Amino acid sequence: MLQPHLTPVMLMPGAVLHADGEAATQAVFPCASTVLSIQMAGQDGGAVEAVPIGSEGMIGWNGDIAALASFRSLVQVGGPALRLEVNRLVSAASIAPGLKSRLDGYHSALLGQALQAVACAALHPVEARICRRLLSLHDRTGRPELPLTQAVLAESLGVRRTTVTRIMAGLAERELIQHRRGRILLHDRAGLEAASCDCHAAVRAEFGRLAPGLFPPVITG
Predict the structure, then answer these.
(1) pLDDT per residue over 89-143, tens digit each?
(2) SS3 of 148, please?
(3) How far is CA 130 from CA 24, 49, 155, 207, in A?
(4) DSSP readout, 54-70?
(5) Do domains 3-96 and 121-210 have the same CATH topology?
(6) DSSP class of 158
(7) What backbone phi and psi angles, to 5 degrees, belong to 188?
(8) CATH 2.60.120.10 is right for the domain spanning 3-96
(9) Which pLDDT belongs to residue 48?
């Protein structure tokens, strides 16, 4: 039904897909290791990440949180994706109850993930949040080497870069990660899971309940 209308595209890192509060006209489905980011913009020009989106999901469904005021979506890890006119997706969902149920389940899981991120920022220490962030990227890219700078990590979490630098050094000393220029190499996923808060597991469980089969399997290597 939709396959003939899907357009393959290559997304570049940092490309803005939807500006603050802009209604989506194109749905975007990241493929393979491509990762999108829905962020909430601050008055100072910075932005805090609300949710990352990999091949388990998409942006552009009716009522997507990316279309809310002060929210924007951009490409965090570049790569292949599929585009589809939102009107075609809405029309298809109106005559295919199974598709609509799947999309609604994903949307509910996405909202739950965003609310979990709010609670995480308020309740958990920065080290646990950093570990959670690294795990979520590893889930979606499937690669132990993450294209992520300390500056981007600090901005996405809404913390000082010096705080991130200190914590990353501690994680490296414990041989959980290795930091390279513009890259973070994960050495010990199990160790990062132990150092993370329980939000990472909670999000996976919520996806399993509301949108079964969408989230990537747990990566152990």
Answers:
(1) 989 999 999 999 989 888 888 888 888 998 999 999 999 999 999 999 999 998 8
(2) coil
(3) 30, 12, 12, 21
(4) -TT--B-STT-GGGSTT
(5) no
(6) T
(7) -140, 90
(8) yes
(9) 82
Structure token pair of residue 22: 């802009």
- Token pair listed for 78: 């570049």
Nearest of 117, 143, 140 to residue 197 by alpha carbon: 117
3-class DSSP assignment, residue 15:
coil
The CATH architecture one would assign to domain 121-210 is Orthogonal Bundle (1.10)
Sorted by where each begins, the domain ranges of the chain are 3-96, 121-210
Question: What is the C-alpha separation between 6 and 175, in angstroms, rounded?
Answer: 43
- Strands lying side by side in the sheet with 71-77: 16-18, 71-77, 35-41, 47-53
β partners of residue 84: 27
Average pLDDT score over residue span 141-147: 91
pTM: 0.89
Helix/strand/coil for 79:
strand
Phi, psi values for residue 205, rounded to 5°: -65, -40
Nearest by Cα to 157 from 28, 53, 42, 73:
42
Residue 199 tokens read as 């939000």
